[in-house]
Amino acid sequence: MGFSDGQEQLLDILQSYFHSATTYYPNPADAGSTTYFSKIAMDLICESARAVSKLKPTAPPFSRHIDLLQSLASGLRDLNLGAEAGPLPDYLFYASFAYVYQLLNWSSDAITTETGRDLILAISQYRERVIPQKAIEDGFYNSTWRTFGNDWPKFENYAGVCGIVVPPSTKELLADPAPIECTEIQENPVHPSSDAVVEVLDYHYATSHPSSKSDG
């Protein structure tokens, strides 16, 4: 089996996992006792993101990965906060966030595309509109050394390097939220018509040089 075949199989696994995550509404009491709601899921996300980040735009599986990112963005936006709303996709939010965080950490080419940046925007918009359940957060990060509270500020820094403004989270869950106007993808002043030329800097560089946020 060649390297490309292995990448295709990995994308098959990721698509299956995230497809299930779209309709998975875990019981917090099950944390640590199911495949999707345990350290196994976090390990899958972290290791898969590291491997998929090696994909280059010229590789045949690259477009499949872009399609996956678009499906995650659509899943996070496809919700109704009205009176007839069903369960919120908080699990999908945490799973998507963890995956994108790792793609940013590994400087994935996919995350600098228009689709990748749109997914970052969808994640930030979701958290602006909704207060994700803390019990789901605790269950998803169960038995891992990572915490959402530590990763979110780093995600904001990464997003800033990509030219995306991540708004502060809402203080209350709004039944009929106002249109989101403060969140936007900013044009790159050097390459105003380009989406894929955004450079994702190393996190340690970005945090030690705050002014770099305005450069990307």
Structure description:
The model is unreliable at 170-185 and 191-216 (pLDDT under 50). 34% of the residues are buried. 50% of the residues lie in helices and 0% in strands. The chain is an all-alpha fold and 216 residues long.
TL;DR?
This protein has 216 residues and is mainly α. It has helices at residues 3-22, 39-52, 62-77, 90-105, 114-129, 134-140, 148-161, 203-208.
Indicate the proportion of strand residues. Answer: under 5%
**Poorly predicted runs of 5 or more residues:** 170-185, 191-216
Distance between the termini: 39 Å
The run of helices and strands is HHHHHHHH
Number of domains: 1
Q: Rg, please? A: 17 Å
Q: What is the makeup of the main sheet?
A: none
Which bin fits the share of residues in helices?
40-55%
Q: Could you tell me the mean pLDDT?
A: 79
Number of strands: 0
Secondary structure layout:
Blueprint: H1 3-22, H2 39-52, H3 62-77, H4 90-105, H5 114-129, H6 134-140, H7 148-161, H8 203-208
Helix pairs in contact: 1-2, 1-3, 2-4, 3-5, 4-5, 4-7
